[in-house]
């Protein structure tokens, strides 16, 4: 009990005696409601943030150069969006070269950039993970690579066919065109990434997309393949983020910020309570680890609308990990990190320090497993965490208390506490880091 | 168990000291109290304990026969057999004769047994008196069942199906005992005519005492079998024996007086020895159970054959039912025998107070210096002087060793405990030898691969030990997974496998997969033989070695790892060879896919009308022309690729042959049994050799 009191101490700020019972904690949480100022005043501060963010991004644009533009091909691989004719001609060249090699009796071999994890590094200058330029040969006449070489040839020919017809297919479609050869979708997916790197184009330029995963709702209007979509009229479920970002055009919004949510459940709560009407915002979730389409979409929103991005994730190492994928990219897609990452995301909550600040009851907190702690310690070593002092502090708090909590832990104060008290208060206090 | 025996005899031996010194008597009293067993076994001639009730060692073991492995009839049959076999092996090895041992177990039916002991068979009169009496109700049930069975049988026969054997209807009743005559014949040393009664009719008398690596567990061996036969059948033991160069065979029939622990001789005579036979043949009739312990006995024989490939065993099981009869011959595969283990002196760190006393009473040395120098290993003269100096002013090198007081002995003992001595050497041990172990494994299991390793001697509590290990992969009659064969002092251990150090090490501490061995799928044989002057057995049964001795467990692990390392290189080579064989097939499998993939794309490129399509190099254009004109088709690609694969495969094969040609496995010598008898040979002459065929 004494330990609990000690932990509650700094947050309680003089009201320590009330921390003993959950009921007391609940009433404290309710008392926070009274601290809320009228929405109008919160909105003013949000507006200030939005304009500051817009100014900052335009300034950085005025400053001119994205460091990546300076010397894109030097040490690491950068892929770019390309139109289908240029991709097709690249494939043509590869195929013709291989075909001539075969006909001259030398077999064939592909030079594939290595995507091994040792080859992927975080560059602090760019604030994202990139793929170093290092190629490995994939000859057909080697038992170890024969199969991969075959699959690569097959994927090249399939992509070629897709591009020529000017259509889009999913990764699953691709897999099913030759199940017998591919055997397992993970294999065709991996080779597809290899092909992206080989051709130096993004995966969406190959016209192969993943199935829809992310959802968006809120003050956003855009055209999906020409059809006007109003994201305020998407019901509670929201609009699925189109896997093919090319289809999206005419983005318009009067939102003041973008709210990134880790989980579907919290997303649904926000959508149902029409949170975006109280505070004009765009609410986005990828339901866990973000897929390529959601990351592309977020980046597109950020670039076009110049809005600040606030993140609402679980208070555990994985929440932070997901945040890092949005911000710095994943190792798997490092070659395309330039197009996929959205730096400058603010961590709104639920942060380890919030647990005590809002006196989340003990029964809603979970002890961290050994694995959690290991992941947490690894995160502390990551450069992207080290860059932000506030994050380091929060992570250290988490590791010290050895407690984690999900966004839903706030539901212990009532299902709508999240939308009615927690988020407004956070916004009012500008409590993000 | 040697030490318990030592202590028992030590207790007896220290009696003369008691009469001289009072404090010594106190020490003796403590020793007997501390060792209940030793107390019970105390020699009959000790006078002072005449007031107490006496129990002879024979009585003690008769009452606690489970200590010696006679828990139940089945186990007793097994133990009897193994004691006889082990005695026979020791006997033959002691005169460096290649052992040739015949074991016969003959089932004796009850009526036969009754006639043997002169009891007239008696029919049951009051059937209901017996346990296996069948009441009317049960009888009806059984008949109905039999009728049903016959019906299905007839149906099956009509349909041409295989007819099942009728199930054995009755299990044996509780009171139905089965009897066995166990005979074991060897070609060993034999026994001196006059010593036979004492050697076999007196418990805890033997030739194997002293610090030496021996097979015997208790010094009980055959005597325990005799006690068991007396308990279960009442029949005496028959012994035939002849020593080398003796012109007569001693024949002796005796049993044991359990209360007095003395032999009771029925017959003791000499017969003519026409064949110049030497060795011993023991025959004992005991109660047993063949059904439950059949597989144990056969396992024992097989494992014994593994660890002693230089011995020849003939095992027979005889009974009235011909289909149950069994004859197995374990052939000799080598004439290389491990040396006879030599008796060694005690290591100072391994002695206790009682043992020091006994050594003093037995020594011929006069003074302390000589005693220390000659009665222990690893104490040189200067070392002994230093030790005596360390004992204090009461001690001097010249003092008479027999005059030491009890306190002084304790001082010596304490010093022995604390002082540092060199480790005893393993020279006194007689391991099976890597060669023999390997041969034994190959002979009995016919594995695909085998690796062996012998560690150097190591020490646990002043007793040297040597671990030898072998691992086999594959083979006949081997189960999938890990099969463990344990040996201690060159005898197989069959019972209480779970807690054994060898089992634990093999199952828990070896990462088989890192040696490319599949713990579940491969047929793995793990053989570990530990020899020592004292095997640290656990439990009363002396059937396993505890897992808590780090010296032994790490030595076992190391030896097994060495074997695994040897195997790994072999396995890798094998995998490479297989890969080489598969390479062509694997590559060719993908040719159609590749050809199709490229062809589809090429056709599409060629299809595009020239103005729209970007310009390519001259060679590319030519290629597209050929595709259009169907000069190049899918088949062209296939042929070109197949040709290329062929070429690459040939090159790789050449490379492989060059690599593997250098490192061929060392050849192994084979052992050919000499032919007995005379044959008519047909000779095929050559300038270098002769082939002789037996027509």
Automatic annotation (TrEMBL), chain A:
Keyword Ubl conjugation applies: no
Chain intervals with Low complexity compositional bias: 9-27
GO MF annotations, alphabetized: ATP binding; DNA binding; DNA topoisomerase type II (double strand cut, ATP-hydrolyzing) activity; metal ion binding
Active-site residues from the entry: 176
An individual GO BP term: DNA topological change
Family annotation (InterPro entries): Spo11/TopoVI_A, Spo11/TopoVI_A_N, Spo11/TopoVI_A_sf, TopoVI_A, TOPRIM_Topo6A/Spo11, WH-like_DNA-bd_sf
Residues covered by the Spo11/DNA topoisomerase VI subunit A N-terminal domain: 147-208
Catalytic activity reported: ATP-dependent breakage, passage and rejoining of double-stranded DNA
SUPFAM superfamilies: DNA topoisomerase IV, alpha subunit
Keywords: DNA-binding, Isomerase, Magnesium, Metal-binding, Nucleotide-binding, Nucleus, Topoisomerase
Domain (Topoisomerase 6 subunit A/Spo11 TOPRIM) ranges: 257-427
EC class name: isomerase
GO cellular component terms attached to this protein's record: nuclear chromosome
A Pfam family the protein falls into: TOP6A-Spo11_Toprim
Cofactor dependency: Mg(2+)
Region Disordered, annotated ranges: 1-32
Enzyme Commission number(s) of this protein: 5.6.2.2
UniProt-annotated location(s): Nucleus
Family to which the UniProt record says this protein belongs: Belongs to the TOP6A family.
Name of this chain's protein: DNA topoisomerase (ATP-hydrolyzing)
Organism annotation: Eragrostis curvula
Upper classification of the organism: Eukaryota, Viridiplantae, Streptophyta, Embryophyta, Tracheophyta
Automatic annotation (TrEMBL), chain B:
Catalytic function, reaction form: ATP-dependent breakage, passage and rejoining of double-stranded DNA
Keyword tags: ATP-binding, DNA-binding, Isomerase, Nucleotide-binding, Nucleus, Topoisomerase
EC number(s) stated in the UniProt entry for this protein: 5.6.2.2
Renumbered residue ranges of the record's region Disordered: 1-53
Keyword Cell cycle: no
Positions of ATP binding: 87, 186, 207-208, 216-223, 542
Domain DNA topoisomerase VI subunit B transducer: 424-583
Localization of this protein: Nucleus
Domain of life (superkingdom): Eukaryota
One GO process term, biological-process aspect: DNA topological change
Pfam families assigned: HATPase_c_3 (PF13589), Topo-VIb_trans (PF09239)
Biased composition, class Low complexity, residue ranges: 24-39
Predominant location: nucleus
The keyword Lyase belongs to this UniProt entry's keyword annotation: no
Stated role: Component of the DNA topoisomerase VI involved in chromatin organization and progression of endoreduplication cycles. Relaxes both positive and negative superturns and exhibits a strong decatenase activity. The B subunit binds ATP.
PANTHER family named in the record: DNA TOPOISOMERASE 6 SUBUNIT B
Record-stated family: Belongs to the TOP6B family.
Protein name: DNA topoisomerase 6 subunit B
Source species: Eragrostis curvula (weeping love grass)
């Amino acid at each position: 009990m004494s330990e609990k009191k000690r932990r509650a101490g700094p947050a309680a700020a003089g009201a320590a005696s009330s921390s003993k019972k959950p009921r007391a904690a609940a009433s404290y949480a309710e008392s926070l409601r009274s601290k809320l100022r009228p929405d109008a005043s919160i909105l003013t501060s949000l507006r200030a943030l939005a304009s500051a963010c817009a100014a900052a991004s335009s300034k950085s644009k005025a400053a001119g150069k994205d460091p990546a533009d300076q010397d894109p091909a030097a040490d690491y691989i950068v892929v770019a969006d390309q139109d289908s004719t240029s991709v097709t001609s690249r494939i043509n060249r590869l195929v013709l070269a291989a075909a001539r090699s075969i006909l001259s009796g030398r077999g064939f071999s592909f030079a594939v950039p290595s995507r091994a994890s040792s080859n992927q590094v975080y560059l602090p200058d760019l604030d994202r993970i990139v793929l170093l330029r290092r190629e490995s040969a994939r000859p057909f006449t080697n038992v170890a690579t024969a199969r991969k070489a075959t699959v690569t040839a097959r994927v090249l020919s399939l992509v070629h066919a897709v591009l020529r017809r000017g259509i889009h297919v999913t990764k699953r479609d691709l897999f099913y065109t030759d199940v017998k050869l591919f055997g397992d979708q993970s294999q065709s997916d991996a080779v597809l990434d290899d092909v992206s790197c080989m051709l130096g184009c993004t995966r969406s330029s190959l016209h192969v997309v993943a199935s829809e995963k992310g959802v968006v709702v809120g003050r956003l209007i855009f055209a999906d393949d020409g059809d006007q979509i109003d994201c305020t009229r998407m019901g509670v479920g929201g609009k699925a983020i189109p896997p093919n970002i090319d289809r999206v055009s005419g983005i318009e919004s009067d939102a003041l910020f973008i709210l990134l949510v880790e989980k579907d459940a919290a997303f649904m709560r926000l959508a149902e309570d029409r949170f975006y009407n109280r505070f004009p915002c765009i609410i986005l979730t990828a339901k866990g680890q973000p897929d390529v389409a959601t990351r592309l979409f977020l980046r597109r929103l950020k670039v076009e609308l110049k809005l600040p991005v606030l993140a609402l994730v679980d208070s555990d190492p994985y929440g932070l990990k997901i945040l890092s994928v949005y911000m710095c990219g994943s190792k798997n897609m490092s070659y395309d990190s330039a197009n996929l990452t959205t730096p400058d995301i603010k961590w709104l909550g639920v942060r380890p320090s919030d647990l005590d600040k809002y006196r989340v009851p003990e029964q809603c907190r979970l002890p961290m497993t050994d694995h959690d702690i290991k992941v947490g310690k690894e995160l502390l070593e990551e450069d992207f965490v080290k860059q932000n002092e506030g994050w380091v502090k929060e992570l250290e708090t988490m590791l010290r208390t050895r407690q984690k909590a999900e966004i839903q832990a706030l539901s212990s104060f009532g299902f709508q506490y999240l939308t009615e008290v927690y988020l407004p208060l956070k916004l009012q206090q500008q409590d993000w880091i | 168990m040697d030490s318990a025996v030592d202590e028992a005899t030590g207790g007896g031996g220290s009696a003369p000291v008691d009469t001289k010194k009072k404090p010594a008597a106190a020490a003796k009293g403590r020793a007997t109290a501390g060792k209940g067993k030793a107390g019970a076994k105390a020699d009959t001639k000790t006078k002072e304990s005449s007031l107490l009730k006496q129990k002879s060692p024979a009585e003690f073991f008769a009452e606690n026969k489970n200590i010696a492995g006679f828990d139940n009839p089945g186990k007793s049959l097994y133990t009897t057999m193994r004691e006889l076999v082990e005695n026979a092996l020791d006997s033959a090895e002691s005169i460096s004769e290649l052992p040739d041992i015949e074991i016969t177990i003959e089932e004796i039916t009850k009526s036969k047994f009754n006639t043997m002991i002169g009891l007239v068979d008696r029919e049951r009169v009051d059937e209901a008196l017996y346990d296996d009496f069948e009441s009317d109700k049960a009888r009806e049930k059984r008949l109905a069942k039999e009728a049903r069975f016959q019906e299905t049988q007839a149906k099956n026969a009509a349909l041409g199906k295989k007819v099942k054997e009728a199930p054995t209807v009755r299990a044996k009743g509780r009171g139905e005992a089965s009897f066995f005559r166990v005979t074991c014949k060897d070609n060993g040393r034999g026994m001196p005519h006059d010593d036979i009664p004492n050697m076999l009719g007196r418990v805890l008398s033997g030739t194997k005492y002293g610090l030496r690596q021996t097979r015997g567990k208790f010094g009980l061996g055959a005597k325990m079998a005799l006690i068991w036969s007396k308990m279960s059948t009442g029949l005496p033991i028959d012994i035939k024996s002849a020593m080398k160069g003796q012109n007569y065979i001693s024949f002796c029939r005796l049993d044991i007086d359990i209360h007095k622990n003395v032999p009771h001789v029925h017959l003791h005579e000499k017969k003519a020895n026409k064949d110049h036979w030497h060795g011993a043949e023991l025959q004992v009739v005991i109660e047993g159970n063949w059904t439950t312990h059949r597989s144990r006995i056969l396992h024992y024989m097989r494992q014994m054959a593994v660890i002693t490939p230089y011995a020849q065993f003939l095992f027979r099981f005889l009974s009235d039912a011909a289909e149950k009869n069994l004859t197995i011959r374990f052939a000799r595969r080598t004439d290389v025998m491990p040396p006879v283990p030599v008796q060694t002196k005690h290591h100072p760190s391994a002695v206790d107070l009682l043992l020091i006393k006994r050594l003093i009473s037995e020594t011929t040395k006069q003074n302390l210096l000589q005693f220390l120098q000659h009665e222990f290993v690893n104490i040189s003269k200067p070392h002994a002087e230093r030790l005596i100096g360390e004992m204090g002013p009461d001690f001097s090198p010249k003092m008479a060793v027999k005059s030491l007081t009890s306190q002084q002995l304790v001082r010596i003992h304490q010093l022995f405990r604390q002082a540092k001595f060199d480790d005893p050497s393993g020279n006194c041990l007689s391991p099976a030898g890597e060669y023999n172990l390997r041969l034994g494994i190959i002979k009995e299991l016919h594995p695909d691969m085998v690796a062996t390793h012998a560690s150097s001697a190591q020490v646990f509590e002043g007793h040297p030990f040597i671990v030898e290990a072998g691992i086999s992969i594959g083979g006949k009659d081997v189960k999938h997974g890990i099969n463990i064969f344990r040996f201690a002092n060159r005898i197989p251990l069959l019972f209480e496998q779970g807690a054994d150090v060898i089992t634990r090490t093999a199952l828990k501490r070896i990462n088989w997969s890192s040696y490319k061995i599949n713990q579940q799928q491969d047929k793995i044989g793990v053989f570990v033989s530990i020899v020592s002057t004292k095997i640290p057995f656990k439990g009363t049964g002396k059937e396993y070695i505890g897992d808590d001795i780090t010296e032994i467990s790490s030595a076992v692990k190391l030896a097994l790892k060495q074997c695994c390392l040897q195997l790994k290189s072999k396995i890798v080579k094998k995998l490479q060879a297989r890969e080489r064989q598969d390479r062509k097939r694997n590559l060719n499998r993908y040719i159609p896919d590749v050809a199709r993939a490229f062809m589809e794309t090429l056709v599409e490129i060629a299809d595009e009308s020239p103005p729209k399509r970007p310009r390519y190099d001259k060679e590319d254009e030519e290629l597209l022309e050929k595709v259009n004109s169907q000069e190049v088709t899918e088949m062209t690609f296939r042929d070109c690729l197949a040709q290329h694969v062929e070429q690459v495969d040939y090159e790789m094969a050449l490379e492989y042959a060059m690599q593997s040609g250098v490192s061929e496995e060392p050849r192994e010598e084979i052992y050919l049994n000499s032919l007995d008898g005379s044959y008519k040979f047909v000779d095929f002459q050559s300038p270098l050799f002769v082939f002789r065929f037996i027509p």
